[in-house]
Write a structure and sequence with these properties.
single chain, alpha+beta
Amino acid sequence: GGDFMAREQSYIGIGWHEVGDLRKLTPTREAFKAAVAQLLPDKPQGYIINAGSQLFRFIHEMKVGEWVVYRSKIDRQFYVGHVAEDYEFRPDLSAEYPNVRKVKWEGIVAPTGVSAGARNEHGSALTLYQIKNYGEEFVLAVQGKNVQSDEQDEEETATVAAEAVQSTEDFILGELDKHLKGSPFEEFLKDLLRT
């Protein structure tokens, strides 16, 4: 997986170089997942589903003219632009991330230029995903428009933090319920109290 940005050449790219040129695959999600499963047989099913789906979206669902937001690993800024051309397979640009799309960059947005909600939504573990709730913020910010007040940002930060705590609690309780019923739970509590 993974991604890269060649800013000077105006490209964004994603990995899974083992799959090769995506244009050679039948344009269905199932065909993409099957290709990943065949070429990376040691990977778990969840990895195969995610990789196949992201590769499919990158070539077949990202349309020329759509907005794209890329967060640089180097300067942590958000680069905002439009998809400019169809998919290309360019191992000459990057052997590790050869699946690329040309982008017309419209500008750069600092992390403080958008709300905490927008920053957190852009923090997905996936390489490629749709920003469903806060996409307009990045567009407004790159156009130099103020998206919200500091007070709103503080409220959103508190909300995001509360949601994170709640989802963590739900996950932990679910795992305890699933794996530690009966006497194993007693052993867990002993270990916890000793710790």
